[in-house]
Design brief:
231 residues; mainly alpha; two-stranded antiparallel sheet
C-alpha cells in the first residue's frame, strides 16, 4: 500500500524556495546537520587518510621545488576559488528560477548551501589550526580551494549519480593538484579539504535522494543528446 509523502514544513519550504532571504536559517540548520553520523564518518575517514598521506608532504614539496609549476596551475587557482564556486552556484540557481526549471533551481540551491557551509567550516579550521604553507604563510589546513570544488562535485554526484560525479570529482582533484604544484598546500591539506567538501555536500543534500535526477547520453536522429530523468 502506497503512502503519501508528508508535507514539507512551511518554513523549510520557504527556505528552500528563497535561499538568499533565508541564508542565515539555512546555514544554522546545515551547521546543526553537520554533526550527523554520516558526515562525521566522512570526516573521520578523511582525517585518517590525511594522516597517512602526511608522510608524503615533505617528499611532494621537495619535488615541487625542483619542478616549478607552469601557467596551467592558474586554472585551479581561479576555478577552485570559493568566490568562483559560489558565483557558479548562484548562477545555477538564478538560471533555474528565471527559466522556471525546478531541477536547475534545486541543484543551484544545494550548491549555494554547500558552498556557504563549506566556507564557514573550512575557515574555522584554517584559523584554529593555522598550519604553515609550503611556500610560507598560514592557514594551510585544510585547502579551501579543494573543499569548495569537492563540495560542488559532491552536490553534482548526489543529484545526478556517478556518471556526472566522476568527472566532477576529477575536476576537483585537478584543483588539488594545482594547489600542491603552486606550493600553497601540503598533500594532507588537500586530502582533508576533499573530505570537508564532500561532507558539506552530503549534509545539504541529505534527504534529497528521493528527488534525485539522472543524466544519461542518448542517441537521436542526426546526432546525440543528454536525457535528464527524475527518479
Amino acid at each position: 500500500m502506497a503512502h503519501e509523502a508528508a508535507p514539507l514544513d512551511p518554513v523549510v519550504e520557504r527556505a528552500d524556495r528563497h535561499p538568499l532571504k533565508f541564508i542565515a536559517h539555512n546555514l544554522g540548520q546545515d551547521l546543526w546537520d553537520f554533526g550527523h553520523l554520516e558526515t562525521l564518518t566522512i570526516l573521520g575517514a578523511g582525517g585518517a587518510v590525511s594522516i597517512v598521506s602526511g608522510r608524503y608532504d615533505d617528499r611532494v614539496n621537495t619535488w615541487t621545488v625542483d619542478h616549478p609549476a607552469s601557467s596551467w596551475t592558474g586554472i585551479g587557482r581561479i576555478g577552485g576559488d570559493g568566490w568562483t564556486q559560489g558565483a557558479l552556484a548562484l548562477g545555477t540557481w538564478a538560471t533555474g528560477e528565471l527559466t522556471d526549471h525546478r531541477m536547475t533551481a534545486h541543484v543551484g540551491r544545494d550548491l549555494m548551501r554547500a558552498q556557504m557551509l563549506n566556507m564557514v567550516t573550512t575557515r574555522f579550521l584554517k584559523i584554529a589550526i593555522d598550519r604553515t604553507r609550503p611556500s610560507g604563510g598560514g592557514h594551510a589546513f585544510p585547502s579551501g580551494h579543494v573543499s569548495a570544488t569537492f563540495a560542488s562535485a559532491g552536490v553534482v554526484h548526489r543529484h545526478f549519480g556517478w556518471k556526472a560525479g566522476v568527472p566532477a570529482y576529477a575536476a576537483a582533484g585537478f584543483v588539488g593538484l594545482t594547489r600542491m604544484r603552486d606550493r600553497m598546500h601540503w598533500v594532507s591539506d588537500t586530502v582533508f579539504g576533499a573530505a570537508m567538501g564532500v561532507a558539506a555536500a552530503w549534509t545539504v543534500t541529505r534527504g534529497h535522494t528521493d528527488r534525485n535526477w539522472t543524466v544519461m547520453p542518448v542517441v537521436v536522429r542526426g546526432g546525440g543528446g543528454v536525457l535528464v530523468t527524475r527518479r
